[in-house]
Here is the input.
Amino acid sequence: MSEVRFTDQHEWVRVDGDEATVGITKYAAEQLGDVVFVELPEAGRKVGAGGEAAVVESVKAASEVYAPVGGEVTANNPDLTGDPAKVNADPEGEGWFFKLKLADKAEFARLMTKQQYDEFVKGL
Amino acid sequence: MTMNNQGRPTAPGAIELNELPTISGDRGLDHEEPLIFGIGRDGHCGVDLPNVQLSEARLGGQRRRGPIGLPGLSEPEVVRHYVRLSRNNYAIDAGLYPLGSCTMKHNPRLNEKMARLPGFGDLHPLAPQSTTQGALELISELMKWLTTLTGMPAVAMSPKAGAHGELCGLLAIRAAVEARGEKRNRILVPESAHGTNPATAAFAGFTIDEVKGTADGRVDMVELEGKLGPDVAAIMLTNPNTCGLFERDIRHMADATHKAGAYFYCDGANFNAIAGRVRPGDLGIDAMHINLHKTFSTPHGGGGPGAGPVVLSAALAPFAPLPLLVHDANGFRLIEDRAEIKDGAKPFGRMCAFHGQMGMFSRALSYMLSHGRDGVRQASEDAVLSANYILHSLKDVMTAPFGDGPCMHEALFDDGFLEGTGVTTLDFAKAMIDEGYHPMTMYFPLVVHGAMLIEPTESESKESLDRFIHVLREMALEAKAGRKERFEGAPRLAPRRRLDETAAARKPVLRWKKKELPQAAE
Amino acid sequence: MRYHPLTADDRAAMLAKIGVGSVDALFKDVPKEAVVPLSAFDLPDTQGEIEVDRKLTRMAAKNTAAGAAPFFCGAGAYKHHVPAAVDHLIQRSEFLTSYTPYQPEIAQGTLQYMFEFQTQVALLTGMEVANASLYDGSTATTEAVLMAQRITRRPKAILSGGLHPHYAETVETVAGLHGTITRATVTPGKAEDIAALIDNETACIVVQSPDVFGLIRDLKPLAAAAHAKGALLIAVVTEVVSLGLLEAPGFQDADIVACEGQSIGNGLNFGGPYVGLFATKEKYLRQMPGRLCGETVDAAGRRGYVLTLSTREQHIRREKATSNICTNSGLCCLAFTIHLSLLGEEGLTRLARINHAKASALADKLSAVKGVSLVTPAFFNEFTVKLSKPAAEVVDVLAKKGIIAGVPASRLLPHDPSVKDLLIVAATETTTDEDADALTRALAEVL
Here is the structure.
């Protein structure tokens, strides 16, 4: 049974066992505008929670994407390199950025639930 | 992720042009012009040159083996092509160009004539110095104008643009810090700064620390003082700032900066508001670049070339880069090497080959001599007066976030007045094109939502300003009245409708390609 | 003041509308003690066109224009004929007095020539992509080194001894902050063994061809040597007309090409403004500095151009930008584009041949003078000769005779006693047989 949590930096993370999948939220994708380029971490790279892991660019903005939880990158989404529009089309599904092997489950538990994140966005 | 809330549509929805297509594809004076590569043909040429015999004996076996792939055209074809292209451009000569922060003022043609005098335009940078005394004299005189107007003791002339000048200033600061035997790696930059400021600081090897602004559009002094410390090399401040406001606390800032052992870098992009009235040297500034292409009207030329000399305080002057210009009994002389230095100066290095943007120097000096000190002051006053006239005339229908007090040479509005209209800053700005105006600077500075920054400069008559104000007022009223059709998808009357920037960035096409690229024959 | 449209009445009416008594009230945020009277400025008052024209014309007359004497200076800036149409076209208001094309709907003129320029530079250099220009050749070379440091994540750059010394100093000043810069030995007329200096820390080697002494270098083995150690080859060209005759650096496997483009379309201007050409391989596109123009369509489906990939640039990326550069060299790049369009394939090829033929003939004449020997065996339009006396002194003596003989190597390398007798001499299509004879005779007299 997988669970999805959110950061106040507008990343989402879904955990299945010890595998975590990371992407940016629908809200973030809308704010960013048309995504034209993503730079993804290579498999094998170790990232800490809150560390810079990827870059997402629209025409007018470039943003760092932070790892919501720490761990070792196991895969990145090969579809995004050729078709970055996927981030806009399905940010919380096919537009995922990378997967990592979760180092510490407690980090995940500290993140916002869907409901908390929706409230958070409403307040922005 | 780091959020950016300034996102805006970059892929316009498809539209159909509801007009009878012409047979030619051209529309009156509006010609569709192909790329030059689609016009030319092989073997033709627009320059008459003899075909000399080639001996390969001295080419070291490096003769080119394949064709380059350039088209051949006669002179009339080339002239027509570029004349047609030019007609798709807006220009200050053709209309008000209210780009805030860019200073699109009149470019006097005398300056063009002076720069083209053979003694300046056809002079080699490494010709014997005895044959370039007039050019060195011109640089020397321009240096006198710049140091006098800024109240600073020295100026480095070689930087080729504003950002290059920033780099020069920061490298002088780095050298001064090192000469004191200190390590200072942090630079404080206000969040309203031009993007070049943090980029330059990083380029020069510093780390950047942002300083927040106050509700009235200035630097937060409390935060600034809190951030000053023994690892701060400098603060970088634009004054007047990018919100078009004068930093009232500037003396205090300078004192606090110096007390902390740091230097005060001022971005001089907005010097045109105060030239002839205020000397940055009196404000405690250590280094400031001057955009000759803004304040002193050398033409912007579609994005350059510029020039960015940097004035320096006594503390930084010894570190100015090579070359240095001196005057002695034998006349003017360029010092191009450290070994020739006698006064203990320690140049941090060299910014570029040769001695800077001479072609811009001659234009700028021509501007200065024409204006005189009184004209320079008048220009600043008229620029500030015109901006305030616009601010005052529009702030009841548009929203001016800092509109309670006077502005300097540019008037800043936000998109508050468009709230709920469905019209965005982008739509509003693009609709100005249909009214015959170039849009103002939009979405900058970043500290204001949906920013619109208007800089009229001193070059507009009152009639021109009144007409501009009338048009913007009516536009604001229409937007509020819900008449979105004027704004949606604007411009309708330009050579092109909105362009698809998303497609351009997703699949970059950065050059024309023949079906088969020329390859070197093996 | 002829440039100020506002009259005293206008100003009064505007102040009245704003509701302040004087313009001073608009400056109320400026500390009072910081406002100075006009008398504080020891500068003249406003003057008419006649006075300004007279003053600057007299100043200009104190200089010896390149076209006014037998003239042989090169070393990074070259005297070429620029067709009259070029200067006419770049002075059109729509080019001269427009800003950076941030509003593409009303800036297609600028954007389209930028696109043409990028294509021309890519074709000339034999590279896949080029940007819309940098300030000049020296800053373009510096940006190339920084880019190589970013791509390879290695700190060290090795500069050929044949790289123009001003370029080397510029690279040291800026790229030296981000890594170490090593200069190879200066070997006039010979290629140094730069490949032997490459190690596993090396980001790039920087090789100019033709080099500052005029020598044509063979880049292909250097590219191979660099690539074998994971380093990049940066090729530098200061005389871009040479590409009309010599193999393009791209076809010799250079990774980045940085050129001074002044020779095409732009006057000498005492050193600036010039135009830096910058080209690279497509795979390094996102590490490239400077402005880029790209093709796209408008909402009605018509072809058009926009500035693109701006997320590399300072105004968006701020401290994470690939460079702090903000402008390009707009009007100089337009002049380059127009001149190269006038020349075309045929014109550039002929122009390059003429340059080489003139220089070759001059080298023969000078070599025949007692006390002169040719140092550079293979060259394009510029070569170095060794004189029997210090070159700087000879140049000064000849300047008094009205001949601008060339650039003494000691002016560029004042610390290197081994070059003090070397004179760098350039000849172009503007050099006449009479000029060449005058130099030959004058050298025979003083040596």
Chain C touches chain A at residues 286, 308, 310-311, 316-317, 320 (CB under 8 Å).
